[in-house]
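Hello forum,

I keep getting stuck at the same step: I have a sequence, I want structure tokens, and every attempt I make locally crashes halfway through. Rather than fight my setup again tonight, could one of you with a working pipeline run this one for me? It's a single chain of 405 residues.
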Amino acid sequence: MTELPYPSLTIPNDWDRRGLPGWTYHSDAMFALERDKLFLTHWQVVGHVSDIPDTGDWLGHDMLGERAVVMRGADGVVRAFHNLCRHRGARVVEGTTGHCSGSIVCPFHGWVYNLDGTLRGAARPTSFGDLPREKFGLMPIEMEVFHGFIFLRFKPGPQPSVATIMAPVEADLLAYGAENLLPVREQEFSGSLPVNWKSVRDVDNEGYHVAMAHPGLQDLYGRTYRDLSLSNGLSVSHGFFGDVPGRLWSVRNYVKFSLDRPDLPKHLQKAWTYYGLFPNIGFVFTPEGALFYKDTPTSARKTHQSGRSYRWPGETRQTRLARYLSYRIDRDTSAEDRQLSIWSNESMKSDAFEGFHLSDLEYGLRAHHDGLRAVMPVMTLDKAPPEDRIASLNEEMSCQTSVGT
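Reply #2:
Ran it on my machine without issues. Output:
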């Protein structure tokens, strides 16, 4: 078997096989804490620079009460702003993607902004008295582009730069030429699940269930699949295909039509590779293309799932066919995972639920939970505190942890 250039998952001889306590999956106060301490302070992928190739092209990104717009300026630079007019806070663009010709015009009162976010002028400017334009541009948001993918976060947080987090796999992205990816509009997806977001991530963060729950993936690469773990909340999962022809129709034909990629290093040839970014993002790279997906809570009991697919330049008809077949396999897998997430989340409300008892093959799930506990130590409590005490108790425990270190 081809050696992988990532460290093996190190599992302690004697480790706590419990997961998060069930109360953390249905607490409204816990959800509010996750919003402020986790999602707004950690990197979120928005898209790829190829999604906005021309001057004035933009991507919208809404999350937990915050709104962002990522736009390519007249100088070719990609920037991120809060999607709030500085006059009354109206959205300056509406939707998930679009184009502004020459300027951004607020649809409420007609304030006009340049494509770099600076204020060009207010409607009826004399009605405002002294209005210094340099102080009323769109408010910027911290943003980073890494090998073509656009990341932002609404508030400063504990994570280092995206480049630092993903440095261990940067050679892979360079080999793939990730910055050259092109969007596949017909394979974008967006939907919701009636579950807590952690139940979705619990399924995604371990491969123990692949053999039983994912016949397509098991048929494709289940014999070689491995979960790996790196630093800073970055994880890698990997599986080789092509050693057997495949039994299922999609798998059999995908293996048949997937072209060799001798330009890639050995560990990326005939391989599907998954890169996970804490707390809620996944990337999938195959010889035919790539996609990202993310699971974002909208409440303690509802999760929004979304993602975008990409292809390589110069795609042949055969490669396009193989990419479509890989999409079919992944589509079926996603549907299977959604059902597993629902079942798992249901159990958290049962009086009979006594917590997880994890296999060594689920250590990646435990690592994800440890990352959550590090940010929100109140999750270490087995019993649910009063809802109105969760935020203050978490603050107290965070201070104790800081003093201890």
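The chain has a mean pLDDT of 95. If your local run keeps crashing, start a new thread with the error log.
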